Each structure stands twice: as structure tokens, then as C-alpha cells.
Automatic annotation (TrEMBL):
<keyword id="KW-0067">ATP-binding</keyword>
<keyword id="KW-0808">Transferase</keyword>
<feature type="binding site">
    <location>
        <position position="184"/>
    </location>
    <ligand>
        <name>ATP</name>
    </ligand>
</feature>
<feature type="binding site">
    <location>
        <position position="47"/>
    </location>
    <ligand>
        <name>substrate</name>
    </ligand>
</feature>
<dbReference type="Pfam" id="PF00696">
    <property type="entry name" value="AA_kinase"/>
</dbReference>
<dbReference type="InterPro" id="IPR005260">
    <property type="entry name" value="Asp_kin_monofn"/>
</dbReference>
<keyword id="KW-0028">Amino-acid biosynthesis</keyword>
<comment type="pathway">
    <text>Amino-acid biosynthesis; L-lysine biosynthesis via DAP pathway; (S)-tetrahydrodipicolinate from L-aspartate: step 1/4.</text>
</comment>
<keyword id="KW-0457">Lysine biosynthesis</keyword>
<feature type="domain" description="ACT">
    <location>
        <begin position="347"/>
        <end position="409"/>
    </location>
</feature>
<comment type="pathway">
    <text>Amino-acid biosynthesis; L-threonine biosynthesis; L-threonine from L-aspartate: step 1/5.</text>
</comment>
<dbReference type="GO" id="GO:0009090">
    <property type="term" value="P:homoserine biosynthetic process"/>
</dbReference>
<feature type="binding site">
    <location>
        <begin position="7"/>
        <end position="10"/>
    </location>
    <ligand>
        <name>ATP</name>
    </ligand>
</feature>
<feature type="binding site">
    <location>
        <position position="74"/>
    </location>
    <ligand>
        <name>substrate</name>
    </ligand>
</feature>
<dbReference type="GO" id="GO:0009089">
    <property type="term" value="P:lysine biosynthetic process via diaminopimelate"/>
</dbReference>
<feature type="binding site">
    <location>
        <begin position="173"/>
        <end position="174"/>
    </location>
    <ligand>
        <name>ATP</name>
    </ligand>
</feature>
<dbReference type="GO" id="GO:0009088">
    <property type="term" value="P:threonine biosynthetic process"/>
</dbReference>
Amino acid sequence: MALIVKKFGGSSVATPEKIFNIVDRVLNEKKENDQIVIVVSAMGDTTDELVSLAKQITSKPYGREMDRLLSTGEQVTIALMAMAFTERGHQAISMTGPQAGIQSSAAYGKARILDVFPERVFSALQAGNIVIVAGFQGIVENGDIATLGRGGSDTTAVALAGAMKADVCEIFTDVEGVYSTDPRIASDAVKLQEITYGEMLEMARLGAGVMQPRAVEMGSRYGVPIHVRSTFSTNQGTIIREEYTVESNKRVITGVADDINAAKVSLVGVENKPGVAATVFKALADKNIDVDMIVQSIRSTDDAVTDIIFTILCDDVPLAREILDKLHETIKMESINIDENMAKVSIVGAGMLGQPGVAAQMFGILGEEGINIEIISTSEISITCLVAENRVKDAVRLIHEKLFLGERG
């Protein structure tokens, strides 16, 4: 007997026919006495359609009411899937995130799971049900519903699996697993048999859309293996775990990630005095705007002013612009420039630790192709360059070919 949490994304449940396909697959694979929890996203493009609907009402569709609206998408899916299981002759019950015990912060649109109390899920399983849970949502202390951000259903699934001490959490998607880079950009991308939590977290944080970063964090926290696999085949996918189990799977470069949802913010000619940077970044943080790749430089001709450059998500640009314009009234600066035509290209690999020269190779590849680097940031296992959006695909293909495949060759 095994306790298995399975997550299916929007493309996997986009139509009633596809919902029945999932139901049939789950029932065919289920062994006697297995306990199954299924976490689902909204059907197809439902979330995008709800966002579009909100924008017809307001130019600033965010906050409590937006989360109330978006949470309805998953609730449609869970009810339909429970009905489909019943039609196939198996007991099933649907639960919203709050009903499943998902407690979250009050950061609407970007809430974090604070705790999980799955007693009601356990009770339903013991009664013989397959339990279908709405992903992407939790309940705030005051009783409100808050959503977990794009890809939040992954986080729901892994958090539930961890809290319930599940044997495995299976993330079903429209690709076969985790690849060395986006197969839509580089046709020679390689499916990885396994990857560590640390590497997958960096890949996800830096743009690899197959997993949400917070989901990987949850997997690492609870030590639950995550199996990323395809909805449309029974092939083995990619296992995300603490350490490699096969020595040959280790490599210097594990993958190349890209992120086109990046905007460069330049605060030009800011007065150079203590506390200014703190004021700027606190104002952004108070509105849950994540900041990355920060550079501050003092002009050699005038040390009384400095330029502060950083990146944010393009999705956050309208709110960030509003905040920075307001700060401009109290902080002296020459101008605020925001460029949304930027993108990040990154290499990730635990093997880079103690391996000199990797950064030089990456920069050399970009330089040879005339791809200008705007900002560079590094961690112990990643190197990220900010480049023009119209060159990022070229950058990914070249770096993947010369660094990842070059290493293997």
C-alpha cells in the first residue's frame, strides 16, 4: 500500500474528455489499498480568462477580490473530476485548498503556504475515497482565500505530500520530465534522469517553468521525492531528490535556464547617502515585489550620486512604477527608467563548485556572438546574465551546445 499525491496541470484537465482520461489512468495504475490524493489546476486557459475578465473591470486587477475570483477556476475542476470518478464507479470527494487544511500568508496573489493540517483528507481516504484537492489556494488566518502565484498547484501538491508523509509526489505535465534546457528552444535538450533539490530550485527560480520554486523548497523541507513526468505517456520522468543516486548523472552543468519575464529598473542619479537603497527596496518588499540582480555604482566624476539598477518581474512593473514614482517625490534622483525588453539566461550545476573558468567560458560564448551582458549575478551553483530579450534564445542554444553538450561530448 502506498500513499501517492498526483498533480495535474491545466492542459491535462482542459476538457471533460481529458478529465476522464486522467480518471481512467489513475484507476488503471492504482494498486489495491493505494491511497490517492489528486491536486489539480484550473481547466486549460481558465486562469488567463479570469484575469482578462478582471481587466475589463479594473486596470489594477490584484488583491483580495482578485484572489477570490481566481480561486474559482480550480474549484470547477475538482468538482468535475469527482463526478468523473463517480461515473467510473469509484468513491471520490473534492476539497478546496482551505478544506484540505492549506493555511497561507495574506500576500494576495503571491501567498506562501505556512502550514498544512490534512486531517480531513486523511479521514476521506480512510473512508475509501480518492481525494481531489484544488491547487493554487490556501486560507488566511482571517478566513480569506489567497492564491499562491503561477504554478502554485505544484506547491500545494508537494506541501500536502510532505505533511501527509506520502511515498512520492508525482507532478504530471505536458513534457516528459526536466530537461537540460527548454526543448522548444534547443532541439538537442536532454531529459535528466534525476536532479537535486538545490539544482532544481535554481533552475525553477531562474525561469525553468516545469516546477514552481516554492514547490521545490517544500520538497526539500519535507524530503519527499518529486517525480516530474508526462500526462500523455507512462515513461519514467525525472526524480528530484536530495542527492544523486547514480554517479554518472553528476555533471558540471546540469542545465541552462531562461526567463523572459524580467524587467530592468534603473534609478539614475540617486543621491548617494546611507539609507536610500533601504528605503527603495523596503517600499517594494512591502508590496511583495521580488527584486533580483542588484547593482549599485558610484559615478567616478560625481560621488554625490549613484545609479541603482535591479531586475523585477514584468508582471510587477505597473505596481513598481507607481511605488517608485511616489518615492521620487521624497528621494532625489535624475530619472526612473524601466526596460521590459530584457531576459535572463542562466547556467546551473552543483559541479561548478570548485571548477574555475566556467563563468569565463559562458561570457566568452556570449561575447563571440555579439550578445551584450547588462548585469551578472552568481550563486554557489548558478551564473545569470541579463541580456536583450531578442537574443536570449540564441544565448540559450549556444550555451547549451558549447557548455552542456560540450561537457558530455
